[in-house]
Design a protein that fits this description.
globular; five-stranded parallel beta sheet; binds flavin-adenine dinucleotide; Fumarate Reductase Iron-sulfur Protein, Chain B, domain 2; FAD/NAD(P)-binding domain; alpha/beta; single chain; 3 domains
Length: 408
């Protein structure tokens, strides 16, 4: 294992860096490495922050194998550079030591609805450009999934406190426990002098299976469980339906908190799992059992009934997955956790802007809705994605919003 400095020294500073090219936020990796190695750690931190205000977060939880690390040329024959570890170190140091500049206010009022990654990014960009920002958040603290979803053993909550502190120092008005679309509507904001509204409400509503047994008392949705695991009594055997990152987070949390035997039920094979490879590997190390090719068909008071799925090769080489109803089996479970995706909350129906068929906000490539002055980004427009994708699109939307606010 190399030290952070040795790791940075291994970087070849490629002319056409594939690591940057495959980062949704196009992080200028060779330039950051250069500054870091020449002792300019604060400048390196500033460069990262300006490019991606949430670099302290994304360096910890990005799917690195799909982005930077997965495309490092050194990885072709050997060990790729773990840029994320260097970035995490620099970005945390930056947050801990940042001296904020004095920003002249421009007197233009903007509302941000939702304080997850998209909302935090937009709020920081607006504040740094002199706007007067009110940040409305349905929960009592900022972070969105970063606070109420991703387990603390993967992401330290003190980072979110540092972001809150920076936003307060820059003059944000924070309205916690306030849900736009229920008590305050978007249309109520404009008469109070808000010139634009940015909606970043995420996709916090869990999808349901639609099966018999789903409303029983021992059945929970993963995103509800992850919000406050201490509120749940899971019992000795926990079955999780779904095999994405949310399922893995629920499984690893249940193992830690309830010391349960955790089984993950997945209707396809190991290679078709959508969860990050290293998260799956750690779940295996921690004792999570994976039951592949199992389609859940019913939830019983003490088990999950499954049908065996067969993998069938099609003529064109692709695979199909077919249920074989001649083979059913029950997986014993004191609790069942459902983790099969999320969608937008109902309050967006009252947002007064056009929605897509999936209930997401319908925006153009610049995040503009069909209501003048209302912009949106993050999972509420893309459906569940990643933090770095939410940040990258929010930056693009900021450019359009800034133009709108200054010229309208
Ligand atoms: C369990 C879990 C694990 C994940 N792990 C990873 C990972 O490891 N790496 C990764 O990159 N991505 C991960 N993701 C995905 C990532 O967290 C999301 O893509 C990202 O959080 C989206 O940011 P967002 O700001 O759009 O939404 P969110 O994070 O959902 O934030 C939305 C915010 O808006 C608030 N809100 C909702 N409705 C309203 C309203 N009407 N008015 C005011 N406020 C409102 C919510 O309370 C919330 O604070 C994970 C997701 C989950 C659920």
């Amino acid at each position: 294992m190399y030290s952070i400095k040795q790791e940075a020294q291994r970087c070849l500073k490629c002319k056409k860096p594939q690591c940057s090219a495959h980062c949704p936020a196009a992080t200028p990796i060779p330039e950051v490495m250069e500054l870091f190695l020449s002792g300019e750690i604060k400048k390196a931190g500033e460069m990262l922050f300006i490019n991606n205000p949430l670099s302290a977060v994304t360096s910890a939880i990005c799917p690195h194998e799909r982005n930077c690390t997965g495309h490092c040329v050194l990885g072709v024959k050997g060990e790729p550079v773990r840029f994320y570890a260097i970035e995490e170190y620099i970005s945390r140091f930056f947050l801990e030591t940042v001296e904020l500049p004095h920003i002249e206010k421009n007197g233009i009022r903007v509302a941000v609805a939702g304080a997850g990654p998209a909302g935090i990014t937009m709020t920081l960009l607006l504040l740094l450009h002199g706007y007067d920002v009110t940040l409305f958040e349905a929960q009592d603290a900022i972070g969105g999934v970063l606070r109420y979803g991703i387990p603390p053993f993967r992401l330290s909550r003190d980072l979110l406190d540092m972001y809150m502190d920076i936003m307060l120092r820059l003059g944000v008005n924070f309205r916690p426990n306030t849900r736009i679309g229920t008590n305050i509507l978007i249309e109520d904001l404009f008469p109070d002098g808000y010139k634009a509204v940015f909606v970043s409400a995420g996709t916090g509503r869990p999808n349901k299976l639609g099966l018999i047994g789903e409303t029983l008392g021992h059945v929970h949705f993963a995103v509800d469980y992850l919000k406050s695991p201490e509120a749940f009594k899971l019992g000795r055997r926990v079955a999780i339906v779904g095999a994405g990152n949310v399922a893995i987070d629920a499984a690893r949390t249940a193992i830690r908190r309830a010391h349960s035997h955790v089984s993950i039920l997945h209707f396809m094979g190991e290679n078709e799992m959508t969860a990050n490879r290293d998260e799956v590997e750690m779940a295996e190390l921690e004792g999570v059992e994976f039951i592949h090719y199992a389609q859940t068909v019913r939830i019983l008071p003490n088990a999950v009934r499954c049908v065996r799925v067969r993998r069938v090769e099609r003529e064109d080489g692709s695979a199909a997955f077919e249920e074989d109803y001649s083979e059913t089996f029950d997986v014993p479970a004191d609790s069942v956790i459902i983790a099969i995706g999320q969608g937008p909350g109902a309050d967006m129906n009252a947002a007064g802007v056009r929605l897509t068929q999936r209930g997401l906000l319908d925006v153009n490539e610049w995040g503009e809705t069909d209501t003048p002055g209302v912009f949106a980004a993050g999972d509420i427009v893309s459906g569940p994605k990643t933090v770095i994708e939410a940040v990258a699109f929010t930056k693009k939307v900021f450019r359009k919003m800034d133009e709108y606010l200054k010229n309208t």
